[in-house]
């Protein structure tokens, strides 16, 4: 489990101090996004360097045995330095972080939502600079399974709305979990608008999600999707 160094490092202020710059990744202005990408690139250099030192320390102390290795000062220092560097970078800051007391109380929640919003709004930049399909899947599942609070719920509705309006990307099917978790008039209104739009992807995907929302007992599998698609095309 990652332990971030510093007093209050795992509270709201600690996360904000480390990652407030990341909000620029979803800014409407290209200049703001470019500045955030430069900051991300710098953070990633630090992560790679710290990881290399940690790997070296691991190799040097591995002969000590597991318990002794984890007490060895050189190893402890290298591990702490890597954790600290990772806590300033996305998606690394979202890896192996404890979610206790419910996801709505997790200080990392705003940045988990930000990471998903970045992928939804600017998928090519996300793919180029921070592609992590496993992280995307895990975050979506954790958000769908928990109660993200009112603000988090509104953001999840936004994310479903964004995702149904584009061509399918890896792990997008996971958003059906979110749609089912935040089902309500607000989401259905958005999906109905997408269903009636001129965007062929929006019409297709929104129709499928609405169909599944009305049938909570049906699993969202590849087989179900293909069967629904074939049926919809035959009408």
From TrEMBL:
It comes from the Bacteria. This is Uncharacterized protein. It comes from Streptomyces sp. R41.
């Amino acid at each position: 489990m990652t332990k971030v160094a510093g007093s209050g490092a795992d509270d709201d202020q600690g996360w904000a101090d480390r990652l407030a710059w990341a909000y620029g990744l979803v800014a409407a202005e290209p200049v703001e996004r470019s500045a955030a990408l430069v900051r991300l690139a710098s953070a990633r250099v630090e992560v790679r360097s710290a990881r290399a030192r940690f790997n070296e320390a691991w190799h040097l102390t591995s002969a000590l045995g597991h318990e002794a290795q984890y007490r060895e000062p050189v190893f402890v220092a290298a591990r702490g330095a890597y954790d600290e560097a990772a806590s300033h970078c996305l998606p690394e800051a979202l890896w192996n972080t404890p979610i206790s007391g419910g996801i709505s109380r997790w200080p990392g929640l705003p940045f988990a939502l930000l990471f998903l919003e970045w992928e939804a709004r600017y998928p090519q930049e996300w793919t180029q600079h921070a592609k992590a399909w496993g992280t995307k899947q895990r975050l979506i599942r954790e958000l769908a399974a928990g109660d993200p609070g009112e603000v988090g719920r509104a953001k999840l509705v936004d994310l479903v709305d964004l995702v149904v309006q584009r061509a399918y990307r890896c792990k997008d099917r996971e958003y059906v979990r979110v749609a089912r978790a935040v089902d309500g008039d607000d989401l259905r209104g958005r999906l109905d608008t997408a269903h009636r739009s001129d965007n062929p992807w929006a019409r297709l995907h929104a129709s499928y999600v609405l169909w599944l929302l009305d049938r909570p007992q049906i699993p969202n599998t590849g087989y179900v999707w293909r069967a629904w698609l074939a049926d919809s095309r035959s009408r």
